[in-house]
Design goal:
By secondary structure, this protein is an alpha+beta fold. The chain has 16 helices and 48 strands. Helix 2 (44-50) crosses helix 3 (61-70) and helix 14 (618-633) packs across helix 15 (641-650). The termini are far apart.
Length: 868
């Protein structure tokens, strides 16, 4: 009997323990912070990819995967396995050596401890448990700041007899297929000859092809019909597909259920389309009276793509454009270039796509600088901190201050896709939830058009990397079902940020509900953006127009441009154009006066498929200011960035104290420009950038320009076998000795004709005149050498063929170097020092160039390795 009682007591205790464990598990899985201890470096959505128990109720990792795939954050490899695009932030002093093997297509910025790349599920699991990683988050695609809306063709057809499919065809297509639709006395041969003349028909080897544009039903993707076309171009947003189609296939295509209409693609007018902004800014008359055209000024554009560039060059709509990279696709960059060219027709144009991560964006910026761009214009907004300068913003500040560039950026189209307010909680289910106090109740609502995907981003005013206030974000569909959650843990060393994604795969507008819970936090200032991937807008309730600018658009030194309706008499800012002022909390409180200017949008341009389109949004406004800046700079190429900036802002005739949060200082008009006729007696404002040197141009590494006087030349790459110092015999040294410095011994040595020159060797050579020195390199790349650096001053150069920032090249030396001094042979002076930890002119973000020697001061020994 005693044994039975003892067993009963033990069983009861076990059941109690088991019941408490189950209850604790249920509470853990239903709390906002469920699962945050496993893979502590992974963001909430990445955790949901790996662990079904962390997904919102009713959803699985497959659902999360589909959502991320719609937002271009997941892709499939050839085997069908998924890879996710991630950004990794390492802890201090951790290297990427052990991380890179787990990523495909990695790209890194060691100076900011950042790596981005694509990871499989297995590799993501491994990385999530790696102790040297601070955080892993998905890469957010940039939000658009403009849209191209193809102008509708005349789709009406005459009321003529025929079968149903014939009603879909334009008259000229019907005439190609049926004689009964021809005018009296006209033959199909006449029609074909005429259309061939106008570029609408081409005939090759008796194969007749017609260039047509097809409109599809909203429920049918244009991609379904690609097989009918050669060289197809499609727009899924507007249900269009165009291209060349065999005349024999026109009937078959028209009979397809998903086709609404087929029309001949009429080529654009041969006279150039001129942006309406050319009249509104009065730049056309200004060019005629002043003779200025932007000649000698390089303008770089960063956007999505330049699809159709060659077609626009053939018809004279664009001149030659130097395309440094075009891997993203699209034609918004093409539209921006057209506007710059219309305003400043003789400016040199450069283009680089925005890349697929923040790191790639900064490299795009550097490439444009390397290629000599004076002005850089972008329309890209990556997700960055809302209350402080983030990675891109910091790099842009460095480049503006270091390289005398004028940086012009679209303000963004987020005025009605933004919310900001202090936390104001109401209690529900034991938690405090934000009371948004909109017209539809206590929660935030937004509506999304069919086919649109994007992100909801929540941030609050803690410092990035130091947040101890813990908020969580939830998203619900129209039925009230939770479809996404973000429950990252903030406990003192985390980012104040949560995000969820949405996608409307249906054929009707969908409404979503956003809720924010105070998981464990003091009251903070909350800020939310709903960011669709395209330039199309969402309808948000409630929204806050004030302070709807963030990222590089908030940089003080940038010129930020909003969008105004094309009205020559009044300034009417578009309702979607982002407003200021910009609230900055860290490192100190600021209210930044952004935007600076506004310019017109709703501008007519040509798309990559040769169709006229209305270019809307701040993406269309910003290039107008870039073109006007090029006109100003072409007055005097020796202007500083601050000179051009001052002249631009003064052209609004608005005093600085009259700045307005909606339109900044207003629209600059060309006839308000005050430009001195000479450089004498000019009283400029203090230089914003503090720069007192002219950056080098992008000279070919194999051909060194030697200037009159002393030159400090570095050998950037191993020379061809057998090469000696006799390569300098082409230089008229006027019998001056050629010198090099031995840092180990602290002594100068004369260079003899048969001395061997190694990679990173530096020589001092005098030249009587300007001449060119050609270098022949060893193409095997097997003879690259390292450079031993000694305490004190060392002469050295870039160990490779590409320009590189001092920060990137010298990062392996950590704090063992203090100064870099670059000798400018053209001016016969040293440029301002590059200082380890310096900013602005003295920042390590300055570029170092191949073949240009420089001095580096070392506090202890180090080694410089070849890097490129």
């Amino acid at each position: 009997m005693r044994k039975r009682i003892l067993w009963f007591i033990l069983l009861t205790i076990l059941l109690i323990i088991l019941n408490q464990s189950v209850i604790a598990g249920i509470e853990e899985n239903h709390s906002p912070e469920a699962g945050t201890q496993k893979y502590s470096s992974l963001s909430s959505d990445l955790l949901q990819l790996l662990d079904k128990s962390l997904c919102p109720p009713g959803l699985s990792p497959d659902d999360i995967m589909k959502s991320m795939e719609s937002n271009h954050q997941i892709r499939r490899n050839d085997e069908g396995d998924w890879l996710v695009h991630i950004t990794i932030e390492l802890i201090d002093n951790e290297t990427s050596k052990k991380i890179l093997p787990f990523l495909s297509h990695p790209i890194e910025d060691p100076s900011y401890n950042l790596i981005s790349g694509w990871a499989t599920s297995n590799n993501l699991s491994v990385l999530g448990n790696y102790a040297g990683i601070r955080s892993i988050t998905p890469v957010f695609p940039p939000a658009g700041s403009g849209s191209l809306e193809v102008l509708p063709d005349d789709l009406t057809t005459p009321d003529i007899p025929g079968t149903l499919w014939k009603t879909k065809l334009s008259t000229d297509l019907l005439q190609l297929l049926d004689d009964s639709y021809l005018s009296p006395g006209q033959s199909r041969a006449d029609i074909m000859a005429l259309m061939e003349k106008t570029g609408e028909i081409r005939i090759e080897d008796r194969e007749i092809e017609v260039r047509i544009s097809a409109k599809t039903k909203p429920t049918t993707s244009p991609s379904v019909f690609e097989q009918f076309f050669s060289q197809p171009a499609l727009d899924s947003v507007y249900g269009r597909i165009s291209g060349w189609i065999s005349a024999e296939n026109i009937t078959n295509l028209a009979m397809q259920e998903g086709i609404v209409s087929l029309v001949v693609q009429i080529p654009p007018r041969t006279s150039k389309i001129q942006t309406e902004g050319d009249y509104l800014l009065m730049t056309r008359d200004f060019r005629n009276t002043s003779g200025l055209s932007g000649e000698g000024i390089c303008v770089g554009v960063i956007s999505d793509g330049v699809d159709g560039l060659e077609s626009l060059k053939k018809i004279g709509e664009l001149p030659n454009v130097t395309v440094l990279s075009d891997t993203i696709g699209g034609d918004e960059g093409l539209a921006m270039l057209q506007i710059v060219h219309d305003i400043a027709p003789n400016a040199s144009l450069y283009f680089h796509d925005r890349g697929s991560s923040q790191i790639e964006y900064v490299r795009a910026l550097d490439q444009l600088i390397i290629h000599g761009c004076n002005i850089i214009c972008d329309d890209i907004t990556y997700v960055e901190p809302f209350f402080e300068d983030g990675y891109i913003a910091q790099n842009i500040i460095d480049r503006i201050l270091s390289y005398n560039i004028l940086y012009i950026t679209a303000a963004g189209n987020f005025a009605k896709e933004h919310y900001q307010a202090p936390f104001n909680g109401y209690e529900e289910q034991g938690y405090l939830w934000q009371n948004f106090n909109g017209s539809k109740g206590r929660d935030l609502h937004f509506s999304v058009s069919p086919g649109l995907a994007g992100h909801v981003i929540l941030q609050w005013d803690d410092r990035v990397g130091y947040s101890s206030n813990n908020y969580d974000l939830f998203l619900y569909d129209e039925s009230g079902r939770e479809i996404a959650r973000s429950v990252n843990l903030q406990d003192g060393d985390d980012d104040p940020m949560e995000w969820v994604r949405f996608v409307n795969n249906g054929d009707k507008i969908k409404e979503y509900t956003v809720k924010v819970v105070q998981a464990a936090a003091d009251e903070a200032l909350l800020e939310i953006y709903v960011l669709p991937l395209s330039g199309r807008s969402v309808i948000m309730d409630p929204y806050t127009t004030e302070d709807s600018i963030f990222g590089q658009q908030a940089v003080k030194q940038a010129i930020v441009v909003g969008a105004a309706a094309p009205d020559p008499k009044n300034i009417t800012v578009q309702e979607y154009s982002s407003r200021g002022p910009v609230l900055i909390r860290h490192p100190a409180y600021e209210l930044r006066k952004k935007p600076d200017l506004v310019a017109p949008d709703h501008i007519t341009v040509l798309t990559g498929t040769m169709q006229q389109a209305l270019f809307s949004g701040t993406s269309a406004a910003a290039p107008h200011i870039a073109g006007l800046a090029a006109l100003i700079w072409s007055v005097n190429p020796n202007f500083k960035e601050s000179d051009v900036r001052r002249i631009l802002l003064n052209a609004t005739s608005t005093e600085e104290e009259s700045w307005n949060a909606t339109y900044g200082l207003g629209i600059p008009r060309a006839f308000n420009l005050t430009i001195p006729n000479s450089t004498h007696n000019m009283h400029w404002l203090p230089l914003i950038n503090g720069c007192s040197f002219e950056p080098r141009t992008n000279d070919p590494v194999e051909k060194i320009t030697v200037y009159p006087g002393w030159n400090m030349i570095s050998i950037p790459f191993p020379l061809k076998l057998g090469s000696t110092a006799r390569i300098f015999e082409v230089i008229n040294t006027v019998h001056h000795t050629i010198w090099r410095f031995n840092a180990a011994k602290g002594s100068w040595n004369a260079v003899k004709p048969d001395d061997t020159l190694l990679q990173m060797d530096v020589v001092w050579i005098y030249s009587a005149d300007e001449t060119s020195l050609n270098l022949e390199f060893d193409t095997t790349s097997v003879n690259q050498t390292m450079k031993q650096l000694h305490p004190g001053w060392n002469p050295v150069g870039v160990p490779g063929r590409e320009s590189i920032t001092a920060r990137e090249l010298l990062s392996p030396l950590t704090d063992s170097w203090t100064y870099v001094l670059v000798f400018d042979a053209k001016t016969q002076e040293f440029r301002p020092s590059i200082i380890n930890g310096g900013a602005g002119t003295y920042s390590p973000s300055r570029l170092l160039y191949p073949s240009e020697g420089w001095w580096i001061y070392m506090t202890r020994p180090g080694i410089l390795f070849p890097v490129c």
